[in-house]
Design goal:
CATH superfamily: Aldolase class I
Largest sheet: 8 strands, parallel, barrel
Helix content: 40-55%
Radius of gyration: 16 Å
Structural class: alpha/beta
Oligomer: single chain
Strand content: 15-25%
CATH architecture: Alpha-Beta Barrel
CATH class: Alpha Beta
Bound molecules: cytidine-5'-monophosphate
Number of strands: 8
């Protein structure tokens, strides 16, 4: 197994059942360093799901996309930190004070090294033409608030590469040639996304909904070894 490739990969466990998530995660642990728990799985199994993924050796990416008053975000982030997550998402649209409150909460609660990833824009939020400036502004905001990184789409990476390069760039919408695009509006191949400056590739359905997820994960790794 290529550890350098594995280090860059997060699997999005977008299922609503902990048994299914655990089965999938167990079979894919050799291929992905990070397990992303989104709202669907978190709503179903919350802290138990985080613990199960940590037990399997994953770093946990808790994708809750928090957006609320600073006090609430601070407290929620502290609790999530106590569960041992490595990454927590908060909406950059909530502004500096809210992001800062989340960063402080996560830091206070953290039981492992962890950081906030600010969600720049949702693919559903804006027209593509207006996106790049907004992504750039929100990267600055994320940096100023002390976030460890950002979540952004691959097509925005190149234009925003010069902005705060120290921020981790987590990138969803990853597809290999022949994969279904599903509801992703702005996709890139793993090689393209890494070449454009992605640090962590978030891959869901192309692997998790494949007839053979392990074979799909192999294919993903092969594409990055070439
Ligand atoms: O499409 P895929 O299943 O690989 O999605 C992986 C992650 O991408 C999802 O967990 C979600 O957070 C994110 N996503 C997105 N934009 C969409 C659909 C999903 O950023 N339109």
């Amino acid at each position: 197994m290529d550890e350098a490739v594995r280090d860059r990969l997060a699997v999005a466990l977008d299922v609503d059942d902990l048994v299914a998530a655990t089965r999938l995660a167990r079979s894919l642990a050799g291929y992905f360093r990070v397990a992303k728990i989104g709202l669907e799985l978190y709503t179903a199994a919350g802290p138990e799901a985080i613990g199960a993924m940590i037990d399997l050796g994953y770093d946990v990416f808790c994708d809750l996309k928090l957006h609320d008053i600073p006090t609430t975000v601070n407290r929620a982030a502290r609790v999530v930190g106590e569960f041992g997550v490595s990454y927590l998402t908060i909406h950059a649209a909530g502004g500096t004070e809210m992001l800062q409150a989340g960063v402080e909460g996560l830091t206070e609660g953290a039981t492992r090294p962890s950081g906030v990833l600010a969600v720049t824009v949702l693919t559903s939020e804006t027209e593509v033409a207006a996106t790049r400036d907004l992504v750039a502004d929100r990267m600055e905001l994320a940096f100023d608030a002390g976030c460890a990184g950002v979540v952004c789409a691959a097509p925005d990476l190149t234009a925003t590469r010069h902005i705060r390069p120290e921020l981790i760039r987590a990138v969803p919408g990853i597809r290999l040639a022949g994969d279904s695009v599903d509801d992703q509006r702005r996709v890139a191949s793993p090689v393209q996304a890494l070449a454009a400056g992605a640090d962590l590739l978030v891959v869901g359905r192309p692997v998790t909904r494949a007839a053979d997820p392990v074979e799909a994960a192999e294919r993903l790794h092969r594409s990055l070894r070439q």
